[in-house]
């Protein structure tokens, strides 16, 4: 879709991945074989899926993070698709002799996914570019929680400049992780918020983490919606939009991207979360991981038609 001149610019920080997705009736048991009904080769990674969602929803997106050697196949594959989505790639850092991550993903008949991924540990040693250039004309930063090792100083600087820093959390965080305090918004998944806080209840886990960070805190819970703490420290919930899910791969990333764009557009938290829930729901109705992210007109149509 055509971008308005006033569309917010969002910097996404992460590690792109080349995904091979296999659709099966059921995940094979250990040591067995199964025939896939479909195969797709797509680009992925948490921040990249979110970046695609932001671009399709009308935001301007720049991407920063490491990618493999300029001569290897996977990086070229991913860059072609990023360019096609209108994502700015000039801030990506190519790392000589390193492989771009590749994952194998199995999606069963319910839409649930199982995956394995290879990431070269050298990727975490990347040095991002100049902060002034990366944050120029930037209304928000969205970062993968796993990227703290190379993104924390930039996120801290963004916060110093009053730029919101949204962290998409898809694995347990250390309570000493610098992103806990550098972030303005922490968007967990249910399992990860419980593991991070050491409490097997989403609401209580959020309350415990609120004592350690001034950031807005939320946890997505799949079909049970999103639970979050308001300014008064009270728990609120944003329900899901009921849809027939066929593929949940990338749904959380689309949620993070849409929420970030909503905040950058000036929406309040409640409205941004509802916008994100609609985008994630639509993504779940189609195959393709993050590359199945919806267009803005689709999300607005779902929001208009919902009670």
Report mean pLDDT, rounded to a whole number.
94
Q: How many strand segments?
A: 13
Helicity range of the residues? 25-40%
Largest sheet: 9 strands, mixed
Give Rg in angstroms: 18 Å
Question: What is the strand content?
Answer: 15-25%
Structural class: alpha/beta
Largest sheet: spatial strand order: 5-4-1-8-9-10-11-12-13
- Count of helical segments? 10
State the order of secondary-structure elements, H for helix, E for strand: EEEHEHEEEHEHEHEHHEEEHHH
Model regions low in confidence, pLDDT < 50 over at least 5 residues: none
The span between the termini is 27 Å
What shape does the CA trace take? globular
Structure, described:
With 307 residues, the chain is α/β, with parallel strands linked by helices. Helix content is 33%, strand content 24%. It contains ten helices and 13 strands. The strands form two sheets. It has a nine-stranded mixed sheet, with helices on both faces. Strands 3-2-6-7 form a four-stranded mixed sheet. Strand 9 (165-168), helix 5 (179-182) and strand 10 (185-189) form a beta-alpha-beta unit. Helix 9 packs across helix 10 (296-305). The protein is globular, with a radius of gyration of 18 Å. The mean pLDDT is 94.
List keywords for this structure.
nine-stranded mixed sheet; four-stranded mixed sheet; about 35% helix; about 300 residues
Summary, kept brief:
By secondary structure, the protein is of the alpha/beta class.
């Amino acid at each position: 879709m055509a971008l308005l001149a006033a569309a917010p610019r969002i910097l996404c920080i992460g590690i792109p991945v080349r995904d091979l997705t296999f659709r099966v009736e059921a995940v094979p048991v250990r040591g067995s074989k199964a025939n896939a009904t479909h195969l797709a080769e797509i680009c992925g990674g948490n921040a990249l899926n979110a970046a695609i969602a932001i671009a399709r929803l009308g935001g301007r997106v720049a991407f920063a993070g490491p990618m493999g050697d300029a001569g290897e196949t996977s990086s070229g594959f991913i860059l072609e698709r990023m360019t096609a989505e209108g994502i700015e790639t000039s801030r990506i850092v190519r790392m000589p002799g390193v492989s771009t991550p590749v994952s194998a993903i199995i999606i069963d008949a319910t839409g649930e996914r199982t995956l394995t991924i290879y990431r070269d540990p050298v990727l975490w040693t990347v040095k991002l570019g100049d902060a002034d250039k990366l944050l120029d004309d930037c209304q928000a930063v969205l970062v993968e929680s796993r990227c703290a090792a190379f993104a924390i100083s930039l996120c801290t600087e963004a916060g110093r400049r009053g730029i919101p820093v949204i962290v998409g959390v898809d694995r347990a965080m250390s309570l000493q992780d610098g992103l806990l305090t550098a972030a303005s918004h922490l968007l967990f998944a249910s399992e990860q918020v419980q593991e991070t806080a050491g409490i097997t209840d989403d609401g209580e886990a959020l309350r415990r983490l609120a004592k350690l960070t001034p950031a807005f805190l939320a946890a997505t819970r799949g079909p049970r919606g999103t639970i979050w703490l308001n300014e008064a420290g009270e728990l609120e919930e944003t329900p899901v939009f009921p849809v027939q899910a066929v593929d949940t791969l990338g749904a959380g990333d689309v949620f993070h991207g849409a929420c970030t764009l909503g905040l950058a557009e000036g929406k309040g938290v409640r409205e941004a979360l509802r916008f994100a829930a609609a985008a994630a729901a639509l993504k779940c109705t189609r195959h393709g991981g993050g590359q199945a992210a919806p267009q803005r007109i689709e999300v607005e149509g779902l929001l208009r038609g919902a009670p």
